[in-house]
Each structure stands twice: as structure tokens, then as C-alpha cells.
Amino acid sequence: MERAHAAFIPLLIILIRSAWKKPTIPVMPLSSVVAMFNTVVIQHFSFANAFNAIVNKFDIPVLPKGFNLGPAAKGVTSLLNRGGMESMMTLLIAFCTLSFAGVLSAFGALNKIVESLLKISKSTGSLIVVTLLTGILTISTTCNGQVSLLLPGELLRPAYIRRGLHPCNLGRSIEDSGTIFEPILPWTAAGAYMAATLGVPTLSYMPWATLCWTGVIFATIWGYTGIGIRKLTPDEQKTMLAELDKEKEA
Predict the structure, then answer these.
(1) What is the CA radius of gyration of the chain?
(2) Hey, what's the torsion of the CAs at 13, 16, 21, 25, to 10 degrees?
(3) Which residues, at least 6 apart from 122, have a Cβ–Cβ distance to it below 8 Å?
(4) What pLDDT sits at residue 220?
(5) What is the crossing angle of helices 210-225 and 167-174, to 10°?
(6) CA 176, 178, 184, 190 torsion-angle sign
(7) CA distance to 7, 50, 108, per residue, from 180 (Å)
């Protein structure tokens, strides 16, 4: 009975912390550590087998002697003999890149680079190029598409508004240099996922993924020619500038 009660503790940790709306990242490792403790101390697994189950996969033969699954053996075996972290490598890459992006954001490393680029950006075309470079830099260093959308957007939005350019131009340029560009970089989450799924190395399919790299070229052309560049009306600019001031105060 004690073993059965202990088995529910990791689940209760997740449910209770979720009900309290606590951050996911600290909760999941805590639940995993408690589950591993139960496995080694209460269910008498070896530490090596417990760690191997986390990294590779759980395997029924590692169950301690005398551990009888009873009539549920077949169903339990099918449920439990699954992959570990190794089978979720793409997810792990995304997790690591998000952590790395958080460090970059906290230290303000990207902010300094963007500020330096904006100083030499005088025209609409050069601002678009700065946006493209920021997007490529962000996706190259953080390896995560979500971060490459959010971070440059927050950093560059004020510059667009102050120059009378609608933020939709910023959104399009970020897409061209972040979301669309990501699959042709081998070390990003999207690049790793597509290479693993298609069975084709990223650099092998890159020349044929024309949408991924021509977006940057056309975005630069639109920036310097003014084609498709939407400007803010005086009223729109005034309203957005007021919103920026409120955000600073907050």
C-alpha cells in the first residue's frame, strides 16, 4: 500500500502546482526527481537502471525480482516500454535553446547589438536590413523560432513607430529572417526536426528550399524600393507613440 501511495506523489506535485499556476519548468524536474527517488528507494531499482530509463527508455526486464504485474502485464508492457529523453531529442533541443535565449535576454546581449545596428540605420531599407540581421542573429544563437519572433519584435517595434512605419513591416521582416529562415540552419530546432523526419541533411536540401532564403533577398528589395511598405498615418503614429510611453512607465 505504501508503494502505491508513493507512486502518486509525482502526479500530485504536478496537479497541485498546476492548480496554483506555478511555473512549469521547476515543477516538472521536481516531479521527475521525486519519481526517481521512489523508484530507487521504495521500489528497489538500481540507480543505473533508473537513470537509463530517463535517458534511453524504460524496459520491463529491469523490474526487480518478485515484481509481478499480474494479468495487466501485456497492457502495462505496451504502455511503459517507451522512449526516454533520447526519443524526444528535438524537444530537448528546443528546451535548451529557450533556456539559452533567456540568458541572452537577461544579460541584454542582443539588446546591445541591436542598439549598435540602429545607430547606423538611417533609411527604411537599412532598417529592414537591420531587422533581417537581427532575426538571423537571434535564430542562429537561440536556435528557436518562437524566440526569434518575440525578441526582435520587442526590440525593434519602437524604432519602426518613431520612423512612421507600420509594425506590420516589422512582422513580415521577422518572418522572413526567423520563421522561414530557421529550417535551413542545421543546429536549430526546425532544422534538426526536418533533417530527422525527411532523412536528408539540412545542407543537402537547403539549395532547393528557395522560399527559406529568397525571403531575405526580397525583403531587402522591398525595403529599399518602398514596394509593399506600409506607412503610419499621423494619427496612428501619435496613438502608438502614446502606447509606447505608457509601456515605459509601466
Answers:
(1) 25
(2) 10
(3) none
(4) 92
(5) 150
(6) negative
(7) 44, 40, 25
What are the residue ranges spanned by the domains of the chain?
2-88, 100-249
Helix/strand/coil percent split, the chain, to 5: 80, 0, 20
Which H or E run includes 79?
A: helix 73-80
Positions in the chain short of pLDDT 70? 1-6, 53-102, 104-106, 108-111, 248-250
Residue-level pLDDT at 1: 43
Give the integer Cα–Cα distance in Å for 222 and 218.
Answer: 6
Predicted TM-score (pTM) of this structure: 0.57
Taking the C-alpha atoms of residue 3 and residue 129, their distance in angstroms, rounded to an integer, is 61
Alpha-carbon separation of residue 191 from 111, 184, 219, 237 (angstroms): 26, 6, 22, 38
